[in-house]
Amino acid sequence: EAQVTQNPRYLITVTGKKLTVTCSQNMNHEYMSWYRQDPGLGLRQIYYSMNVEVTDKGDVPEGYKVSRKEKRNFPLILESPSPNQTSLYFCASSLSRGTGELFFGEGSRLTVL
Amino acid sequence: SQQGEEDPQALSIQEGENATMNCSYKTSINNLQWYRQNSGRGLVHLILIRSNEREKHSGRLRVTLDTSKKSSSLLITASRAADTASYFCATDTGGSYIPTFGRGTSLIVHP
């Protein structure tokens, strides 16, 4: 089954404790992206990747890192989480930039205390 | 930065009625997409309309695009309680082709 898998789905952590949210897709997609969703603000793009070893900042990259060492994986790293990073995070992928349909993971709800 | 803005923010209707939501954007687009999100779940792609298209249909969904007004509408005909969800438009512009999402319309369909 074609899917985008995120882990963990739920996480409560404390300020400053490094964490990684994994994202994996099984569709051989070139383009992958991370979004955060906050009430009243919709989806905002954090980082995106056009292909392996190619990543770029979205609209709200501060406090986040990403890597794309393999085509299928695109982890989101919070080196020193802060309470303002409490949010619902989504990973998405598409065949390539400009091909339209994004496939989304089920989301990772992160709470930073 | 958010390119598209949906209107209304919230919509409440009875089962069987039609639901119309709109998306306005600021700069010329390549494509406009509509997505659906059930509460707290991942977004699901509904339909894509290209800048040179004016109307597309998919089942009970009808999407129109008016590039002169920089707006699009999503019509759901004969709505069902299962259509209760948030609906987002996403636009991509210029050479980036990277979709930017609006804040969404929350639709409630009462049985």
Your description of this structure?
The complex is a heterodimer of chains A (113) and B (111). Chain A has 113 residues and is an all-beta fold. Chain A has strands at residues 4-7, 10-13, 19-25, 31-38, 42-51, 54-57, 65-66, 76-78, 87-94, 103-104, 108-112. The N and C termini of chain A lie far apart (36 Å). The model of chain A has no long low-confidence stretch (mean pLDDT 94). Helices cover 0% and strands 54% of the residues of chain B. Chain B is built from no helices and 11 strands. In chain B, the strands form 2 sheets. In chain B, strands 2, 4, 5, 9, 10 and 11 form a 6-stranded mixed β-sheet that branches. In chain B, strands 1-3-8-7-6 form a 5-stranded antiparallel β-sheet, with no helix packed on it. The radius of gyration of chain B is 13 Å and the shape is globular. Chain B has strands spanning 5-7, 10-14, 19-24, 31-37, 44-50, 55-58, 61-66, 71-76, 85-92, 100-101, 105-110. The A-B interface holds A 4, 33, 35, 40-45, 48, 59, 88, 90, 92, 97-98, 100-107, 109 and B 1-2, 30-31, 33, 35, 40-45, 48, 88, 90, 92, 96-104.
